[in-house]
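Friendly challenge for the regulars: who can give me the structure tokens for this chain first? No prize, just bragging rights.
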Amino acid sequence: MKIPILTYHKVDTKFEFGITRVTPEQFEKHIKFLHDNGFKSLTVSGARKIKQTDEKIICITFDDGYKSIIEYAFPILKKYNFIATVFVISNFVGKINDWDFSFGIKFEHLDWDDLKILCENGWEIGSHSANHLALTLLDKEEIKFELENSKFEIEKNLGVKITSFAPPFSRYDEKIVRLAFESGYEGVYALTNGKNLNGVYHRFAVYTIDSTRSIIRKIQNSKLERFKLNFINSFAEFTININYLKNKLKTKRWKHL
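First reply, four minutes later:
Bragging rights claimed.
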């Protein structure tokens, strides 16, 4: 059964240069709209177990795991009896988003105590890799580390099984998906309408520019929203290349110590 999946990044009052942030007011407007139109929420792992139902189901997901989730998104979702899935970057839990390119504006990530609170309230925690590097630029051993180390660290700190993985920048291929399943994941969640592979679920990102009308189109899997998603996602190439170079320089420094 195909269940629509929406993805948010930052739900915050803090300004940023970009469109991945929505305000708490925008977010509540979206969630209230879904609630008032009869939707119920499931985590992505819960949705994978659904074969057939007459209920209107939706999955709410968050990529990167920002602190604003527990400050703003969590109370709003709880108000409407919704739960969600957060894909976290294991090596940045409790830290600021130094992995991301920005104009001097930094955002804090959720810490382990925050994530435990979310788990206790029925949320799912998934992996968004260890370091948020584009896996398509890495060799096999590096990919395995990003998959396996993040899974191990999250499970160790939270005491829950991690079965869902979202590839950074939504870059994936057959090898990455195969290695993800070999590492113990049961679902791979991408933010592009790329290649259809078994076990890969496609999601729609929600941006600053999105209204409730946009939410309807995303749920209906409209061509306009697919085009918009892929067009916006294409701008991630700059951050991908910057991160790749930074990681290579860091690796070289360690080798010379």
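DSSP finds nine helices and eleven strands in the chain. The mean pLDDT is 90. Your move, everyone else.
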